[in-house]
Design goal:
By secondary structure, the protein is an alpha/beta fold. The chain is built from 13 helices and eight strands. β2, α2 and β3 form a beta-alpha-beta unit.
Length: 363
């Protein structure tokens, strides 16, 4: 066993059907009584329920949310929070709601109680991001990590198929990169593999029966574990690609994950024989890149960049920007060095949508 250092973040997790009713208890633990409630449009009914439960403690309700957290939106939300003297933020919805809550907490230094309704996983990380002038700027701060996360599988039952599959692939990407990203330890590997196993086991069931509460619960549990794994490690080539595709070309973040993940795995796998062998076991013993692509097809998620509306002429510019972002990954960096030409070839394969396979023996 090699020596390692693992920093365990302080956060409470409340998991279970109907657990959203615990939000009052969590705010009491934080001694908070002036709450900013942030909700995505799709979570409006849940936000109404929470607002009723919190009563006059909700001093600011914020329903304007956008993916990739535009800087001007973050600044307006921060100003409103300051004017309302909020002492806690409750966010309900997907990654965009959590992202905006983080943007406010970054400057306001107020605790977050997150109630995710998708599988984005960002509620378990210290990563934040804002987008300005077609550039998604990410950073790390413990101040944006939610103090409490409430996982209620009941809130995922009505998630549309077009969101369920890509959101699950977003979570899978967290697990995959946590296997080799800077900061990886034997502890984070356990989280990553168990999270990926739960998602692989439950996603097809959820696609076949969207209101299967048991399957939804397992999928949400897997996403939670994957988020913890990424939160304790970092991002690699895959996430850098998705950040550029989202921030620069405005692609939906989760959809980009579902398209890119099989191809980024195929690229990195030849230099990660042990990690890919473990991932293969979780995915049924198959070629990991091909297995992820097959799962994407089974989950009816996008498998080509062309389907997401990206223009082929934009691929070279995207590759150049991604190369610059990959260079910023802390040492030891992405496990397989890559040039802009390497990234361009990967993007071209993802644009065409061909089923990828690992070109080298990984066992």
């Amino acid at each position: 066993m090699n020596s390692f250092t693992y920093s365990q973040h302080r956060a409470r997790v409340i998991f279970g059907d109907g657990s959203r009713t615990r939000v009052v208890d969590e705010l009491n633990l934080l001694r908070a009584d002036r709450v900013m409630l942030i909700a995505t449009g799709s979570a409006g009914a849940v936000a109404d329920e929470l607002a009723a439960a919190l009563g006059r403690n909700v001093v600011l309700r914020w329903d304007e949310v956008a993916q990739h957290v535009p800087l001007d939106l973050a600044e307006r939300a921060r100003e409103a929070a300051a004017e309302a003297f909020v002492d806690a933020i409750v966010c309900v919805g997907g990654g965009s709601a959590v992202g905006l809550a983080k943007a406010v907490a970054l400057t306001a230094r107020r605790p977050i109680v997150a109630i995710p309704t998708t599988y984005a996983g960002s509620e378990q990380t210290t990563i934040y991001a804002v987008t300005s002038e077609q550039h998604k700027q990410t950073g790390n701060s413990i101040s944006v990590l939610p103090r409490s996360v409430i996982y209620d599988p009941e809130l995922t039952l009505d998630m549309p198929a077009g969101i369920t599959g890509p959101s699950a692939f977003n979570a899978l990407a967290h697990a995959v990169e946590a296997l080799y990203a800077p900061g990886n330890t034997p502890v984070t590997t356990v989280y990553a593999l168990q999270g990926a196993r739960a998602i692989h086991r439950s996603l097809a069931r959820v696609v076949a029966a969207p209101r299967d509460l048991e399957a939804r619960g397992e999928l949400l549990y897997g996403a939670y574990l994957c988020g913890v794994a990424l939160g304790a490690t970092g991002a690699g080539l895959h996430h850098k690609i998705c950040h550029v595709l989202g921030g620069t070309f405005d692609l939906v973040h989760a959809d980009a994950h579902s398209v890119i993940l099989p191809h980024s795995v195929a690229f990195n796998a030849p230099v990660l024989p042990d990690e890919m062998a473990e991932l293969s076991d979780v995915l049924g013993g198959a070629d990991p890149a091909a297995a992820l692509w097959d799962l994407a097809v089974a989950a009816q998620v996008p498998t080509t960049l062309a389907a997401l509306g990206l223009v082929a002429a934009d691929l070279p510019a995207a590759a150049e920007r991604i190369e610059a972002e990959v260079a910023k990954i802390p040492a030891p960096g992405n496990p397989r060095p890559c040039t802009a030409d390497d990234v361009l070839a990967l993007l071209q394969r993802a644009y065409a949508g061909a089923r990828p396979t690992v070109d080298a023996v990984v066992r």
